[in-house]
Automatic annotation (TrEMBL):
Organism: Mycolicibacterium iranicum
Lineage: superkingdom: Bacteria
DUF7379 domain sequence ranges: 224-397
Pfam family, one: DUF7379
Name the UniProt record assigns to this protein: DUF7379 domain-containing protein
Amino acid sequence: MTELHGGTDRIALGPDIYVQAPGLVGSVELAERAVLGTRSGEEAATPTLVAALDRQDFAVLHSLEIAATPVVGVGPQANRGTDDRPLLSLEVPGVGAPGPTPDQIQVALLADEEGIVSWHYPQPGSMPNLVRFDVPADTVAVQELAPSDGTRGLVSIIGKKLLSVLVFPLIEAGAEYIGQKIAEWWENNNRPSGVRRFIGPADGTALTPIDGHGWSRLAEGRALLFVHGTFSSSHGGFGALDESAWGTLSSRYGSRVFSFDHPSLSVDPHANASTLLSFVPPGIQLDVDVVTHSRGGLVARALACAAPIDSSPIRVGKIIHVGAPNAGTALADVESHAKFVDRMSTLLNLAPDGPLSTVADILDGVLTVVKIIGCNAVGALPGLSAMDPRKDWLPELGQRQAQPYTGYAIGSDYEPKGGLLKLMRGADGVADRVFGMLPNDVVVPSHGVYEAAGAAGFPVPAERRIGFDRHESIWHCAYFGQSRTSDALLNWLGG
């Protein structure tokens, strides 16, 4: 164990491992190499997180346990961030082939005693062949906690901050650092496009591809289509839907229920809609209602305005927008991607509501974006950029001629508590760091589900929308586990 004294000394923890911790008094020690360190011999991360890291080829190189409290009066020589906050700096040996295009990349993962998870990315080291990670020193200080309720999420620690350095390989040695290519590789292998019979959202094994007879069966009457959101899949995104509600909907639609699984990072929603239309055999005409989640709402809107709309093989009757970013989300800004993955990682840790497949689905996508940021990959991700309110994609969608569908909306104003409050609010405890004062479900601003800057069919009228209040604590990935959502779907669909 090494003592921290609040100064800016560069302290050796092990061979070529150094830490500077200005403003912190306490101790730091190298822990047994494990995901996010260990606590009394127990891994601090759950099997869900461990499995996701393994699927994405992350390996732990170093783990630090930090037990420190802040002091005032840090000198001007301290390394500071852009907001002038003193930074804790950790330097570790570089790995992989040397040179400007290494074949392995390191990232750091910090977990605190309130369950907040944040990712940190490599900086130039102060010495050759070292990689440096900078973490705001005040985020590493241990806070006094209220008694625990005994629950734990993906990460659970008490009284210490855990800082782990992980490494992952590039897709191929010397690969070009383009974020879209990294996302495309992962999605081609893990989120390929496909249209399947959706036998039951809770049974991911029952997703069977649609053949020629299946398409003809879907065309015998109005069908129900499910379109998932960012990072997700059909069985993950809708897996929490109540079984009795599911059975009723399936009966109403004569079992003509199907889902569209698709990539959500490497291509935009127009490309998703075009791919879906390409699956429909010649001579088949479908009339569909669409249940969407998150970015899936944009895919459904793109489907409704795919040219030429008069001869489209899919006619859209209703679109249910559940947490859809119809007015965009600030988290889709390429400069906010780091905030996006921190927020999603923490939410999946503290609020894993619904089936485990939902958490696992999203974790894999989050880790893919971590890789992209860690590689300093250039360019935006088309699937996320489409949700950026500062870009042209959403206004262009709103100006397109669309089929005359009927829209419905379900949104939420989520009130954070505990660690989530600390994550989402600024130092004054009032302003959300990403959305300002706007109500939001942690990912999408509440009003943006039923408003779309003058687009046809918006705003969705009050009688066709539901809003979860703050006291209900419903965040972006928890909608389909709620009875109000099931009731709304039954009121709006198949009647």
